Amino acid sequence: MNDNKGNGFQSFYQSPVGWLKLTSSGNGLTGIWFCESRDEKDFPDEFTGRAEKQLKEYFDKKRIQFDLPLEITGTGFQKKVWLELLHIPFGKTLSYLELSKRIGNVKAIRAVGHANGQNPLPIVIPCHRVIGSDGSLTGYGGGLWRKEWLLKHEGVLPQQEFGFDF
User: Fold this and answer.
1) Are 126 and 144 in contact (CB under 8 A)?
2) What's the whole-model pTM score?
3) More exposed terminus of the chain, fewer Cβ within 10 Å: N or C?
4) What would the CATH number be for the domain defined by 9-59?
């Protein structure tokens, strides 16, 4: 029974990049949020459970692609950007400029960057795979150290490149 008073479902997963709060509407996964601690109760459902299982497989290097029902909320432009992110393969990166070209608007680089930063489902929708045209790691809602960790985990960056030891 969910006694979360109609606020949807949630569970917490302790990952190598910190606590992740997984949220669901009951129809699909709605969010993955980086947290500093587990400060709320779990009200899991099948979608948060499946997400937790697949995230564990990803972090254990047993999964490179997610297969989860997603319920994505955002503007039409944001959804267009987020859906394009799903086409960036594991272990690859794409520049903001290239992402802008892929959605058909080369002049929308800043808007693409903003939409990327608003992604409600990081890791599953791999916004961490978008980098600067010069190869630099630019902004990440979960902090640059997490972006670096994820790219190292996927083999994009050498383990010692930016000074964080993992």
Assistant:
1) no
2) 0.89
3) N
4) 3.30.160
